[in-house]
Amino acid sequence: VLGTQIDAIMKTEDRDLFSKVADACGEKIAESSCCDSVPDAITAAEKIGYPVLVRAAYALGGLGSGFAYNEEDLKKLVSVALVNSPQVIIDKSLKGWKELEYEVVRDKNDNCITVCNMENFDPMGVHTGESIVIAPSQTLSNDEYYRLRQCALKIIRHLGIVGECNIQYAVDPHSSEFRIIEVNARLSRSSALASKATGYPLAYVAAKLALGHDLVQLRNSVTRCTTACFEPSLDYVVAKVPRWDLQKFSTVDARIGSAMQSVGEVMAIGRTFEETIQKALRMVDEASLGFDPIRYDLELNRRGSVALSQGESASESLEAELKKELANPTPVQMWAIAKAFEHGMDVEEVHELTSIDRWFLSKLHGLHMIKGTMKSMDFNQLRNQPELLKEAKLRGFSDRQIAALVSEPERMEYVASPALLPVDYGSLRYTGGPVSEAHIRHLRKKLGIVPVVKQIDTLAAEYPAETNYLYLTYSGEEHDVDLAGSEKQCSDVKVTDLTPAIPEPLTLKFQAQGSDSEEGESRIIVLGCGPYRIGSSVEFDWCSVSCVRTLRSLGHKAIVINCNPETVSTDFDESNRLYFEELSHERVMDISELETPRGVVVSVGGQTPNNLALGLHRCGIRILGTSVEAIDACEDRNKFSQLCDRLRVDQPEWSEFATLEEARRFCTVAGYPVLVRPSYVLSGAAMRVVTNDDELDIFLKTAAVVSRDHPVVISKYITGAKEVEMDAIGNEGELVNYAIAEHIENAGVHSGDATLLLPAQRLFVETHRRVKSISQKLCKALKISGPFNIQFICKDNEVKVIECNLRASRSMPFISKTYNVNFIELATRIMTGFPVHPAIIQPMDIDYVACKCPMFSFGRLKNSDPRLGVEMSSTGEVACFGVNVHEAFLKGMVAANFKLPKKNIVISLGPNSAKHEFVSTGAAKQLQEMGFSLFATKSTSEYLSKHGVSCSLVYKPLIKRAKRAHPPSSREDGHDDQCARFHGLQRNDRWLQNASGCHRSRCTVDHRHQNGHLHMCGHPQEVVARKQW
Fold first, then answer.
1. Engineered SS bond to 135: which of 238, 308, 759, 807, CB 3.0-4.6 Å?
2. What does the longest C-alpha to C-alpha distance in the chain come to?
């Protein structure tokens, strides 16, 4: 084993051995005990004293962990934890202490340095992956910092670590005491953050040290002028904020704690804590203006809270809601703190409820005070106080945030020019009316309040910094790098309106490498994917990186804007310049004005960059590839539906509506179920299948909040249909290359949650031909140059279009790897005007099948209900190859942690159509022939018995075995189903989706079964997710 040896790893993983290491070094660890049964855990907890923290051993992200305040809590937690792990760890609770972490590197010659120290904004009790993290630490005294550093070096040297590791501490805020929580003798989640925060490539250095190099020999490949035996010294502040998507799961307990539930994170850089935290809050949630209560108000509205109403009782209700939120944090706690300050709470009150350090809270309260000052002003008063505007920008306020605070003046002090009209984009002079982001931008530029570009400088002025890691700040006097547009930074921007007709796509004029360019250096900006979330994950980063590498190979200077420390696109050697910045209109405009690029690529980073295209275009920024007018025509549901009608492309019956009565009228004519879809959203956000008038009434309020500026469309929902996807590359309206994949699940499951087969296996030749024909029509009409994705619904040999995305899709990497053709490379060449030739792809000649399966995280979400629908739920995916569809599908299921059953299968099939399909396809008989024992719920059992399939009757959790006086209502039955799924998750049972998934699965299962139980369910529009539990 290279690097750290096995005995050192064992000492860090085994609590008894680690305790001896700490004792030998004269340090203390939190009191703990390892147990492998519930009685042992009860004995250990009584010895340690309640409350205790229960953790599953050998589990990532605190899976199955929680705090037990009594024996009853302990039994529940240990029972669940032992399902996921053979051992549990019972720790003494240090809830409320400060949590800190040091990243340490050591070589074989005992050279040892601390690379980065980080402090959690949240106190102990919140998993470090769930906490906001600040680097370097802000609340430690100099003495405390060096005591922890000395302890880290002592422990790591004693263990004999060779490579990189981290050590975590709990520090008592009321004394100088501290405890070692653990040492991870490996790279961890925080290693990526530490690397990007300090410009110290930890993984690279750790690999070299494992190969026998030492820190003195190695050069730091980022700074290029120091050895690796050099501790970074930061002149800036870094903040990491996690991203949650718990609002997608209506039944989930939203409280955050010792078990990790976040799906991504962002990293922000600034010169002050206030600037950095406001940047990070905007990066992680597009609905956030910064440290502002508006985001919390939106959450209260989503929950249907009465705290938003007026009156004295509402005020009391709001205070009670705030106290509950602060004491039991959820993903919106930071914005709840802003609301608490607005409601009149002071720093001490918030500290008592949250245990967050007073230093952090006092800085946040300072932001609240500045916000209050600006809120009392109108635009004219702000214009007369440039020092306040400057201070606001220093503290991280965005132009949009300031515009929302400043009121409209009662009268104007000057006569407006007719040529200058207030708009939402650009940088224009204020002429009255509501204050917009454009007006604040114009004002600060005229006052000379503009950001400067700074490098990540960790050399403490001992050496000149040479790195392409950049960020923008208002705390500086000059740029650290040469910028082509720095002289014109304060000039105005000409506004460009959309044209009625779709124009030709914008590409660069082709120029062979080595030829003279009249335009000089060719710089192109690529917008990254932002934080990982449900619907936008590493697939889009793969697309961004492929685009950047192609641009550089063609001789262009690639400039990346992204804020995600987990991505490859934010590695130091992937681009010519990297801006760790917000993916917002304001920040992209700032960078574009300074860099003066030849174009901006928005089509490879997912939905976030796509949503910026319209505003950037109106400000004169050249969007490469497909025109912004075409993007708008596809993103706007109404415009796209009208386009399909003009092209005579079939689509489900649809209508745009502005009132509830119009929506009801359509539903009466078309008939339920219907699909309600807002515009400009990713992963089916706020999209719902509605089955009656009451559901429609309740849901429309939610849909309206998501996208106020774009229409909401309602369309007929087609049941029992197959879904097909077309991913393609266009060149000036002509199809260059394409791939057609089919979903195993029927339509109604979001494409990101569906299992894909490529090449498509069960499509008629005529269906294939019509899918391609419709795609060619749309490609030509929209004049597409670049990547695009179209989703179809097929039933009874009819092909209808669901939607078209004029950007790279989640399935683009899967398709590129299956066909061994990089579709993004082709798209990038087209967008830059480079000649391309279609790759030869012959699906009929391919002698293998690829299957893409989603990964779900329901097991990590407390009280989650594993149902699938039109809104995406999966958090990852796997892909496998096979000689036929059955082998590929089976491999994919196993890769996605689905364990095949050996003995028992429980079947619960909702509608009679699902029961009929299960019997008529021969699945039931085949499973029995393979030796499985079938168990079924009441109605399923009756149907199977009637058709000659023997099975044992099982009851749902809430059904009493005695005969009911009356049959259960549909509502009671639905609640019963939900309880059954909850119990299944806790037992770590395996689930299959609906009848389609069951049919495909039984074809793949042979007699080589593994241990476990299997549930098969089939509910209309409530398809049960498989995998992982």
1. 238
2. 88
Closest CA to 787 of 570, 610, 532: 610
**Residue 747 to residues 383, 599, 994, 1025, Cα–Cα distance (Å):** 55, 38, 12, 14
User: How far is the C-alpha of 812 from the C-alpha of 788, rounded, in Å?
Assistant: 9
Judge whether 123 and 98 are in contact, CB under 8 Å.
yes
Please give the backbone phi and psi of residue 625, each rounded to the nearest 5 degrees, phi first. 90, -145
Coil vs helix vs strand at 919: helix
Q: How far is Cα 489 from Cα 483, in angstroms, rounded to an integer?
A: 10
Rounded Cα–Cα distance for residues 864 and 565 (Å): 28
Spatial distance between the Cα atoms of 272 and 134, rounded to a whole number of angstroms:
11
How confident is the chain (1029 residues) per 10-residue block, as mean pLDDT?
Answer: 92 87 92 88 90 82 80 88 83 90 95 94 90 94 94 95 94 90 89 90 93 90 79 92 86 84 92 96 93 90 67 79 92 94 94 95 96 93 93 95 91 47 54 88 92 87 80 93 78 70 78 49 93 89 96 95 93 92 95 94 92 92 93 86 90 77 81 75 62 77 48 77 92 94 86 89 88 94 94 87 91 94 96 91 89 87 78 88 92 87 83 83 85 87 87 72 44 52 53 52 47 45 33
Q: Please give the Cα distance from 357 to 351 (Å, whole number).
A: 7
**DSSP state at residue 516:** -
Distance of CA 366 to the CA centre of its chain: 30
How many alpha carbons fall within 13 Å on the CB side of residue 815? Answer: 27
Which residues, other chains included, contact 516 with Cβ-Cβ below 8 Å and sequence gap of 6+? Answer: none
**Is the Cα dihedral 1006, 1007, 1012, 1016 positive or negative?**
positive
> What's the whole-model pTM score?
0.88
Contact 828, 546 (CB under 8 A): yes
CA 368 to CA 377: how far, in whole Å?
Answer: 15
CB 310 within 8 A of CB 402: no
Peptide linkage before 652 cis (omega within 30 of 0): no
Distance of alpha carbon 683 from alpha carbon 533, whole angstroms: 10
